[in-house]
Amino acid sequence: MSVTVFEATVDGSGMSIAIVQSRFNLKICETLRTACLQELSRLGVAPDDIFVCTVPGALEISGALAKLAETNQFDALIALGAVIRGETYHFEVVADQSAAGIREVSHEFRVPIANAVLTTNTEDQAIVRSREKGAEAARVAVEMAEVYRAIDSLDDDDDPFED
Known about the structure:
Helices cover about 50% and strands about 20% of the residues. The chain has 4 helices and 4 strands. It has a 4-stranded parallel sheet, sandwiched between helices. β1 (about 15-20), α1 and β2 (about 50-55) form a beta-alpha-beta unit. The longest helix is centred in the last third of the chain and has 30 residues, at about 125-150.
């Protein structure tokens, strides 16, 4: 019996990627964006193939992602933001609803979305995580775009369970 295993090479050459970044907690979000753009470049995504837009806060990210997904111009999308716990219940609402909105867009439009909206207890925790999380978002977006392409290329007549 032969098992087919697809493993992405994480090569962004020829890919088109869109990033939606929150401006709330701007210093942290700019660090996320800088790290993400550096990693996309390292992975071979051309600067002309990257679109970045900013939105006021984490709750607005999913709306912009949906509009970008509607265009069918992008192989993957990336969400960047930071939600830091405060003294009120608002943190839970924003953290939960922004994640749910991002997931909804990914499912509705069948497009990979790397969710790099940090949810932390303190600003210091967000600062520490922002650089690696931004780079990780780039890697996730490119890898998942490759996975989606591989799945899309499967012929309907192919039976993955066939010897």
